[in-house]
Give the backbone structure.
Amino acid sequence: MSVAQTKAGEPQAKRRRIMAGMRPTGRLHVGHLLGALQNFVALSQTGDCFFEVADVHALTTKFESSGQIASDVLEVVIDWLAAGLDPEACTIYVQSRIPEISELALLLSMITPVSWLERVPTYKDQINALGPAVATHGFLGYPILQTVDIAIVRGERVPVGQDQLPNLELSREIVRRFNHLYGPVLAEPEALLSDTPLVPGTDGRKMSKSYQNAILISDDEAATNAKIKTMFTDPTKIHKTDPGHPETCPVFFFQRVFNAAAADDIALRCRTGRLGCVEDKADMARHLNAYLAPIRERRARFESNRALVEEILGDGTARARSVAMKTLAEVKGAMGL
Ligand code: TRP
């Protein structure tokens, strides 16, 4: 199958351009898999997908300790490929390798009012949480750079979680302002809200690397089993015979996802004191490991062939860059530069 054709042979022009970005946070976990990557894989089967590792965005918070960003980028891409993204069917690339992104960010910064940026909730929240020192020029401009990520490859749909909606709304406003000032050059992106629930970590809070409660895609079976053994369950169920509350139990969350056919029965046995947490965890671990097995196998293959990963990134970046160069040229022309 050629990249320019869908499976049905429909020309690329008719496929929707989908753009998504992820900051390189290092190795990804099951929360990423269920929250974003499965969706990326599904979208790349019908849409013309551009998936970017947003390493310049990582600098907005990590500028003092940037030494690991390049290796984090590679880990993220290996996890994407492990999850099943097919580099023949979508475009995978790195933000910092496309200088046109930085140039367009400067141009769009000229037309973006500071007040629009200051009212973005994540900006206000981060300053309240971490103090004014995080408020660099680049951090304030984070949504401009994100707008460029999308607009420069002509992204029409952007798969995001709820938390990204304010950023996307701002992207639409910036694009509208540009088109109003200089003519209809940029596409107004639309959010593709995925309806994935919050994935709990081993402590019951949202799965997150910073909480140390994550099961990584790169964990092996033994590490996964060990983490699941320590997993939080319904605190009111101490003995097997105590009635449990599966709806609030993180172990049951994963049973429902990875052992769906048995979930009703598991819930009933838990509630009626016929299933203990130890047995439940071992059973859940088996199903999660079975789901992860082919993903881990692919991960191992890419991990031992980094030259191939680099080649995939090189191809993807070249493809994305040629689109970016055209968009930038049109923008500059429209602006009179
Ligand atoms: N801000 C996004 C996040 O934190 C990451 C991101 C960067 C992004 N550029 C993007 C998302 C472009 C969608 C489109 O998750």
Observations:
- The CA atoms of residues 39 and 194 lie 8 Å apart.
- The longest helix spans residues 306-335.
